[in-house]
């Protein structure tokens, strides 16, 4: 081999992947497989994994195994796959020449093959069996094999390789190594490679000609096993429990390390497939079923668990790629490195001071290990309480401490201590808290945030005041983190995590399993994603989704969960320390857990989302069927279960699917459970649309699929049947009516005319009489009551005038003072009689005008404005302002004369009793009622008057009228309101004056 080629190969050979961790799953007849022999493994174009076994063909979607073994064949034993994945044309051969075609996600038996798809080819009267993977035949029987390519075929015998091109080209003969157990031949694309054992080289053959020879130690090593599959286009090398991939690129044969396995038993391994999209290695055994190895991006760094504890809490970065614990142990992604042997410490606190000295503590004191001594010696700091958290800026130190309360041995109080300068020597300020403090962070230049086991506090550095930020819950603060854009995020113990915005806490939504109740901290990567460790898994979410949720609670937030299957050894991460996660300069994150320190690069860890949904299967009455876009069922089917097939090989917690059925009452999106079924109960006949949506990216993108569920009606439920029945009934009714009309028409024509005329006349007369009767009754009753009241009230002034005049007649002589007194009494009594008479006349005028008045539409605003102008001069003379706030848009049918009299009386009273004040008139309209409010600032009505008029209004027909005591004005108003079916409400204003609220029935009189 040419020296340059050999050098290039060595460089390629040693360019392996860095060692990776992995997790393993095993499947056999106990958990899904129909048989423990997995002969071949492929992945179709739709994303499903297919296995051949000796008891059927198996489809695997990442969660469930679907077994197909009831084919109408002589045997259900299948060996290898061949054909084309891209063309959705995958074949498998059975034990007796039976043939299966995988197409459209389902297998079926076929009877004929196209050219170049036979499993046996005949050449020179010899049978050659199709060769497309290592272990598809037991070649110890010296079988002759053939391989197909785009331009020709290779026929392989014990000592020779014959290339036969399609067309008229000459055959090419090549020597071959004697076949032992497995042919030392494999293909990559259109190139054939033969391992030449004598020369320890790999020969490249193209179209029957040798074009290159490579020195490939791994391929020629007798300890290596080669696994290849032509349909998958993959070649693997297994050497000393290490898997390598072999591929052709840039005219070079390249080898890369895939994964190093521990305690791996390679016996009976017959099939290998690697899924690069999910980084999973599938290994099929002839006796032990299927093994799935998931290559992880996470590494758990720890020491020997039999000798050391691997429970970690607080850590800080030590170098660009390592961290140090409070005990002084240093770890990187490859495990334990060294120890500084810090003694007598607690695992919950470690930090740097401004000189990069390392601070650790115990229950009594703070120790500072000196950087200048390579952290081999320490100096004690202060012993004032147990330090819980620490921070510093360019001017001073800040420390949170806790100490046991004197009144209790189990409860703690807290302090925030601010030191002068960058040392612990002199205290500048102290702030005291009744509860144990947990976390400290700077909010802005003038404020600090202090978390405690009972809530969150804001400390002002200027005013030295402490204010509590509450949400109604007693929050135990676990951590506080400020993101790159300045937002402050709060994690709690058992209450989820929050966004601090405008000094209030906004609770973020939880994941479906509510594991985020125990969120420990948040680490932000370079793409704006938060990584949140919890007591049950690691979660990833983009900050923008959380910020959108804080503005709109309906905005969805999608969390991605990493669990043990992702590569770490426990789902329980640890919080409680002052630092619950680190970001190293190398870009890696480090999280403490109950079983090691978890190292990972967030920019390289991939979140796996499903790519497609398939709605093709359903179960109706315990019978499974397949469909495309339309699912047909009958009304006898009480329940329809629709299977939602999703090829997905990650954590099923990250499948976010929901579905809804259109056309049903209260249709809404319902989450799909892990069984991936949607059940429909008695949907009724007609066309129903089932919509399914699924999250496919960490940016909140969804894909949608829909199917039509068609349930035909019974014949009597069809439109045409109902139409015919309706038309038949109409026809029958028409004929009956027509016959009856003809029979009665002649007989009833004259009688109908006479009855019609008389009925109309009598109806009109009765209606008029009833109306008149009602009006007269009310008028008579009202007049009786008014006359009786006026007669009673007028007796006193008349009697008084009679007595005075009699006295004058008898005595005849009076002095001037006595005369003036008598005439003044006569004047007052006469004036009272005059007012009674005028009020009575005004009432009569309004009443009879109303009876003859026609109802017309007019503006309420203009009517009030007219009355305002009328009383303007009087009000102005009293120093009073009349304000008209009635809406100009209100139009009314209420009798204008009556309403004008009512407003006049009310406005007259308000002007009369209001000095140096204001009278405001407002209005509102609600349905058929107008509310008119007159509010003054005068002397106001007393409670006795308000009670009297309120009782009088509620029982005006039976209450006694006190006209002499209270005058006729408001009595008249009440009588007029009764005439227009309206009400008045009297109320004393809170400060001064009275409010009169009219509730007017706004309707047109017929």
From TrEMBL:
Domain of life: Bacteria
Transmembrane segments: 719-737
Keywords annotated in UniProt: Coiled coil, Kinase, Membrane, Phosphoprotein, Signal, Transferase, Transmembrane, Transmembrane helix
InterPro entries xref list: HATPase_C_sf, HATPase_dom, His_kinase_dom, HisK_dim/P_sf, Ig-like_fold, Reg_prop, WD40/YVTN_repeat-like_dom_sf
Coiled-coil features, chain-numbered ranges: 759-786
Signal peptide: 1-19
Presence of the UniProt keyword Iron in the record: no
MF terms (GO), sorted A to Z: kinase activity
Start and end residues of each Histidine kinase domain: 789-1004
Keyword Repeat: no
Name of the protein: Sensor histidine kinase
Organism: Chryseobacterium kwangjuense
